């Protein structure tokens, strides 16, 4: 399918408005931003960004819609989300291709991202019938206590370029069944994928007479995110991106006593034990390090390898890296696509320079690719360096396919190295030794929000809560009881007696 046909199927114009309240597109009135594909450097289309006036109009509409939407029975809201999942199944191919072309991830990963959206819709449908509370025994006779959960209102979703559609769906589909309305501020680097999603969901919502404003879109830059973070009409802001961005959002939201759900940077490690199945470990490490060209928050950035298997595993890594196909992500034979833009390429080359200056030894050399097929200037070589864990460059996240490897002799030392970074998102151990795996998962083990055994750091399922600790932000999205982040808890006490006994046995006579 040619890209012009893909854009046509998804309702993408040459110039698109960047503001919607559902099926209604507003005049965004701001500056135009152009979306260029990192695949070939070509312009895909342009989007008009929102002004403060247009942003306010979208938020106001979301507030108005909330008053009606929250009164719909949760299973009825779930039925609408079920239909969104069906629509995404219908548009999986063109949407997956647009995600791949606009962001640069491989076609299979583009399809996989849309499948994540479908999966979270399925999950949210079931959840719509399980928004449970608790009952508690009262200390007072003929009294009943229970707790229930109510929707918050307008949920603001700020998403990043690396997952241009999936992260929005993790938040919005759960928020919708909980009774909230959502306003999405996508990355200005991937606005067209967001507009395509808005077109798809708006059709479903309109067919079900969902109030206009339940699903809003505002395309803009940093200022738009700042408006949302400081907006008292938005009780919850869910933000995905760098730790630097998250600190700014968190501080601004906290200053108005709002809520923030932060999914920020990762500096993820795999520990390869002497008892590991090295073939499984290799597969996990390779996909974790080079998938999405190293532009996942769960990308494997560090490998701690036991000294007894270090040389053998290093040889396997070198041999596997030689087989990687770097090129057009729309070609299904490609393993590694481009970085998102030339700024990302500059960050990659700068990190390599820092590693070399610190004394890092190249195991697989990096570099920027040039020539036929690489005209966009965004293609780089996945590389491997032998390093020390405490080097400053290793302590920071570089959104690129740079893998750092290091030795260990004692498992506790490897766990300490893994934990000794500011970030705490995803972690893995490769071992067939039960005691080692249990230590890794114990209180003395990984300090990350995700800890895996014999699978890699990347590729989380939607059924579990996704998120991390420390500078990763502490947020949780997707499965388990993450739905509670989108609701407010209320404790209720009901007196069905003809008396008014007080708590703690207090006597009060009038």
TrEMBL record:
<keyword id="KW-0520">NAD</keyword>
<dbReference type="InterPro" id="IPR016162">
    <property type="entry name" value="Ald_DH_N"/>
</dbReference>
<protein>
    <recommendedName>
        <fullName>aldehyde dehydrogenase (NAD(+))</fullName>
        <ecNumber>1.2.1.3</ecNumber>
    </recommendedName>
</protein>
<dbReference type="InterPro" id="IPR016161">
    <property type="entry name" value="Ald_DH/histidinol_DH"/>
</dbReference>
<dbReference type="InterPro" id="IPR016163">
    <property type="entry name" value="Ald_DH_C"/>
</dbReference>
<dbReference type="Pfam" id="PF00171">
    <property type="entry name" value="Aldedh"/>
</dbReference>
<comment type="similarity">
    <text>Belongs to the aldehyde dehydrogenase family.</text>
</comment>
<dbReference type="InterPro" id="IPR015590">
    <property type="entry name" value="Aldehyde_DH_dom"/>
</dbReference>
<feature type="domain" description="Aldehyde dehydrogenase">
    <location>
        <begin position="25"/>
        <end position="491"/>
    </location>
</feature>
<dbReference type="InterPro" id="IPR029510">
    <property type="entry name" value="Ald_DH_CS_GLU"/>
</dbReference>
<dbReference type="InterPro" id="IPR044638">
    <property type="entry name" value="ALDH7A1-like"/>
</dbReference>
<comment type="subunit">
    <text>Homotetramer.</text>
</comment>
<feature type="active site">
    <location>
        <position position="263"/>
    </location>
</feature>
<keyword id="KW-0560">Oxidoreductase</keyword>
